[in-house]
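Sanity check. The docking grid for protoporphyrin IX containing FE depends on where the pocket ends up, so I'm generating a full predicted complex first rather than guessing from homology. Inputs follow.
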Amino acid sequence: MKRNVAALALCDWSKKQVSRRNVARHFMHVRPGSDVFQMLNDSIITEMPAVEQQIRAAAGRPIDFKPLVQMMSCNIFCDYLCSVRFDQNDPEYQRLVRDFDEVFWDINQGYAMDFIEWLRVFRLGTLKHLRKLSSRIRKFICERIVNHHKETIDYDNPRDFVDMLLRRMNSQEGDHERISETTALYELEDFLGGHSAVGNIIMQTVTQLSLDDRASLPYTESTMYEALRVCSSPIVPHVASRDSTIGGYDISKDTLVFINNYELNTSPQLWTDPATFNPGRFVKNGAMVKPPHFLPFSTGKRSCMGSKMLSNITFLTIGCLLQKFDISLPDCPKNSRMVKEHLVTGCLALPVDSFSLVFKERTHT
Ligand code: HEM
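Predicted complex below; grid placement will be based on this.
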């Protein structure tokens, strides 16, 4: 079975995939003390005042926080990977963020037809709509990001991830093969689209913290992991590239294999009281502990490339917010419905119209 070679996560392993992962590695491996760590921190810090300004404008009234978070997250990604930020009032930018979020929501539903080609006939209408969103995203990225880079690039001094992709289009580097323009654009879209995952996990974590009077910085990390535990679903399939065995089972070449993250994260054999949302399960003697069967980003050579970016952005943004605001979830019909239907499900994505939150300026430290 040959799978869509455009999407980074859903394609077969190949020299091209090695080349694609290699271009992104520098920007994704955000280690404390590295130049990219500082760059990412700067992008986050630059974005926070706009969020705080809008929170303050609400003056303690409930706000729909998700659009704000998604716009913030997208601008952090654009600044960090493409050296460009957009005005939050720019209607084209607002639409880009909504389009990405809608695509992300759809991917997270884990429809069987996403993996089984012939079932697609049952979703032709939705697929047409998703194609429309994707081509609008492509147009924005070309017109507002890539064209300017093409005109101003200095191949010897790449400024950012976009320049690195343009350089890889023009030359083979070491063992890594050249990539086509289409491949480069898909790759850029895939990574920029990562902002939707980040925005959604920030929403999940902030909402859980708002329900918990222990909300604090150290507690944020375990809350994020607990949110990942309850949200993870088996959305990324693999295809066996040769005959093999797993745990004593014969797997023949081309078999579709899923790592069942849902089972790994909710099995009573692996977790105490798995149905309860309990960030404390990741903390032992004041330190974070992750059991070996907790693999929200998978493992091995196809593992998630965005996990470091995700945790850096999540902790820093939530940390900045908690320093300044007490966050609570007001009791209203919409929030009650959202808590019931969307807070603890095997789905990371929250609907576009999500929780309303109240932010009150902190009067204590
Ligand atoms: C809550 C957030 C996220 C979760 C739970 C998550 C989880 C995963 C998982 C389970 C995989 C599949 C690994 C496998 O095939 O074995 C994956 C792949 C991938 N993720 Fe993430 N991810 C998240 C956010 C991100 C972000 C923010 C980015 C980019 C900035 C990203 C980039 C990627 C890429 C490029 C791949 C494909 C890697 C490959 O197949 O070579 N992810 N992710």
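Relevant for the grid: The CA atoms of residues 138 and 189 lie 8 Å apart.
Also worth noting: The pocket of protoporphyrin IX containing FE is lined by residues 8-9, 17, 21, 190-191, 194, 197-198, 201, 228, 236, 296-298, 302-306, 309-310, 348 (CB under 6 Å).
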